[in-house]
Amino acid sequence: MEDVAIVTGASGALGAEVARALSLGGQRLVLFDRDGQVERLERLAASLGGALCLTGDATDGPTWARAMDRIRQETGAAPSRAALLAGAWRGGTLLHEETSDDVWRTMMATNLETAYRSLRALLPPMVAARRGSIVVVGSRAVEQPWTSAGSAAYAAAKSAVVALARATASEVLARGVRVNAVLPSTLDTPANRAAMPAADPALWVSTASLAAVIAFLLGDGARDISGAAVPVYGRS
User: Fold this and answer.
1) pTM here?
2) Residues of 34-51 as b/e, b for ≥16 C-beta within 10 angstroms?
């Protein structure tokens, strides 16, 4: 049976690398991202020799229901592998100096709610088929929250994402489905280089390196790994 693999947040730097890694493994790809990313997704799909491109709000249950119907129609199956990369970072303000709840709500929506809704949509068909693998993206801040001083809302959201994934992993393990998390430190992306021009990106984690870890955890070689939170810290 051909595996269908979905990548959320696929238009980003990490999403593109994960899509490439999964494409090399022979999976049929579904690239999913927010509205407004159609052109980027289509360019990525073309570079990979083809993929189903979907856009929408990953925090919305009906959007996910429509997406799953479309995936089944186009590929003949629900995804059996999923890299849940949708997320965002906002920080720079100390919690006691915050004057609104905007950052908190944004971090919870873009990180935790996207993971929750994705799991709600993807797990039932995997459990029914008794096969599947999912990877979510946490952060080094999960294990070292002090490194996220100035962006406590982000640390809290990512910690909740990983807790959700690990609890869910226990729930579905006996049903043939695995759920794992990766905990990267700073990723070497164009956006991070622009935001931190004085930093040494050689100390950061390359997107290709993290993508390889994610692809491994999704694959059969990691069939005995579930509920893990794998640190990927680079040299920082």
Assistant:
1) 0.95
2) beebeebbeebbeebeeb
What's the CATH code of the domain at 41?
3.40.50.720
Cα→Cα distances 154→11, 71, 178, Å: 21, 31, 25
Distances (CA, A) of 135 to 118, 180, 229: 11, 5, 10
What is the per-residue pLDDT across 116-130, written as a single tens digit (0 to 9) for each?
Answer: 999 999 999 999 999
Residues 138-194 have pLDDT tens digits of 999 999 999 999 999 999 999 999 999 999 999 999 999 999 999 999 999 998 899
CA distance 55 to 53: 7
User: Distance from first CA to last CA of the chain, Å, rounded?
Assistant: 41
Total domains in the chain come to 1
SS (H, E, C) 187-236: EECHHHHHHCCCCCHHHCEEHHHHHHHHHHHHCHHHCCCCCCEEEECCCC
Contacts of 104 (CB under 8 A, 6+ apart): 98, 153
* Strand stretches in 34-112, DSSP E: 52-55, 81-84
User: How many other CB atoms are there within 10 angstroms of residue 5's CB atom?
Assistant: 27
Q: Is there a contact between 49 and 98 (Cβ–Cβ < 8 Å)?
A: no
How far apart CA 8 and CA 19 sit, in angstroms, is 10
DSSP annotation of 122 reads H
Distance CA 102, CA 153 (A): 10
Distance CA 34, CA 109 (A): 13
- Which structural domain range is residue 55 located in? 4-232
